[in-house]
Amino acid sequence: MSQARQLAGSSKHHGTAADAATLSPDAGAGRLTLARNAIIVGLAFVLSRILGLVREQVLASQFGTSREMDAYVSAFRIPDLLFLVVIAGSFGAAFIPVFGDFVTRGDRKRASELASAVLTWAGIAVVAMSLISFALARPLMAVVAPGFDSDTTDLSVDLMRILLLSPIFLGTGIAFKGILEAQHQFTLPALAPLVYNATIIVGAIWFAPTYGIHAVGWAVIVGALGHLLVQVPGIIRSDLTFRPSLSRQVDGLREVARLLGPRIIGLAAFQFNFIAINAFASTTSAERVSALNYAWQLLMLPHGVIALSISTVIFPTLAALYGQGKDVDFRRTLDRALRPLLFLSIPAGVGLFMLREPIVAFIFQRGSFDSRSTELVATPLAWFSLGLLGYSLTEILTRVFYATRDTRTPVITGVITMILNLLLCTLLIGSLSHGGLAIALSVTTGAE
C-alpha cells in the first residue's frame, strides 16, 4: 500500500505553538498539554491503523497475493515518491520549523505569507511532476517492476496513471496537517487518515467485485480528497490568510529552501529503497510484491501507534524549544519520548516475530488469501519485525535532526543506507527470495 503514511480544531483554537512553546516541558500545564495531545494522536493512530488493517483485510480477501495486487502495489511507487519528496519534504522538515518560529513570535502575517508561498510552489511542483510521470508511466514502470509480464505491466501503468492524482490531494491535506500541528491543533489532522482509510474500504467492498482493482485505485483518489476536506474547517478557523503567491521575496522562504534541498535527497533515498525492493521482488515468482506489502502493513500497526504518534506530537515542541535556546528542556522532552518508545517497541517486535504465522492467518486468511499466501507473508514479516526498534528510533531521531535544522546528517546516512540496501538485496535475493529483501531493509534501517 502507499508509503504516503496516515500522517495526520475546535472553534477558534488559541493553543498555538506559541502558547505551548513558552511553557517549560516540566511545567504542569505543559505536561498536561503534551500528554493530552499524545493521547489524541495516539488514539487516532490506533483507529487509523485498525482501519488500515481492515482495508488490507478487504483487499486480501478480494485479491489475495495475486497479479492484480502486485500491480496495485507497484503502481503506488512513483506517486509515493512524488508525495514524499515534494510535500512531506517541504512541510515535514523544512517548512514547520520556520513557520513555527513566526507562530511562536505571534507574527501571523508572515506565517500566512510563508504558508501561502510554500503551498503554491509545492503545488506547482507536484502537479508538474505528476503530469510528467503520467506521460512516462510505461518506462517508469519498467524500472519499478522489470520482472512483470506484459499484462501485469499494462495493469500497473493504468493504475499508476489513476494514482498520480493522489499526491495532489493527499499532499495538500498533509500540508494542512503540518500547518495545524505547528499550532498544536491535532484533532482534525488525526481524523484525516480515518477518512482516507474508510473511503478505500467502502470502495473495495462495494465496487471492486464489479470493477476490479481499478475501483480501489479510484477509491484512493476519493479518500485523498476526503483527507484534505476534513481539515479545511481547522484551516479556516486558524486566523491565517492563504492566497496563491509566486513571490520569492517572502520572509523565511529562503530558509525553507535551504533546509529543503538535503531533505529531498534524504527522502528520495529512502523511497528508492522501496522501489528497489519492488523491482527485485518483481523478478522472483509472482505474488512476492504483494506479500512484502502485506508484511509491511502489519509492521506499520505497532510502528504507527508507538513511533509515529510520539514523533508527531513532540516535533513542534522540539522545534520551538530549540528555537528558544532551551537546550535542557529540549533534552528532557526527547528523553520522555524515547523511554516509552523503547519500552513498547522491543516487546512488540519480539511478539510479532514469535506469532507471525498465527497473526497473518488470523488477520488475512480468508477469501482469495489462502494458506500459501499466509506463508508468503509470514516470511518477510519475521525479518521486518526484528527491525521494529530500528524503524521506531529512526522515526524519532530523524525528527530531532530536523527540529534542530540539521538536514545534512539524515541525508548522509540515508544515501549510505540506500547503497547498502541495494548491495544486500543483490546478495540475498538469490538464496532467500523476498525474505532476503526484508532482511536488507531491516538491517539498513538499523544501521541508519
Explain what you see.
- It is a single chain.
- The chain has one domain.
- Helices cover 82% and strands 0% of the residues.
- The protein is built from 19 helices and no strands.
- The chain has helices at residues 17-21, 28-63, 67-75, 77-104, 108-135, 137-144, 150-163, 166-182, 187-206, 208-211, 213-229, 232-236, 253-282, 288-323, 327-354, 356-364, 371-386, 388-403, 408-447.
- It starts with 16 loop residues before the first helix and ends with a helix.
List the keywords.
448 residues; mainly alpha
Number of domains: 1
| Tally of contiguous helical segments | 19
Please state the overall shape, judged from the principal axes of the Cα atoms: globular
Number of strands: 0
What is the succession of H and E elements?
A: HHHHHHHHHHHHHHHHHHH
Mean of all residue-level pLDDT scores? 84
Using only CA atoms, what is the Rg?
A: 21 Å
Give the helix/strand class: mainly alpha
Oligomer: single chain
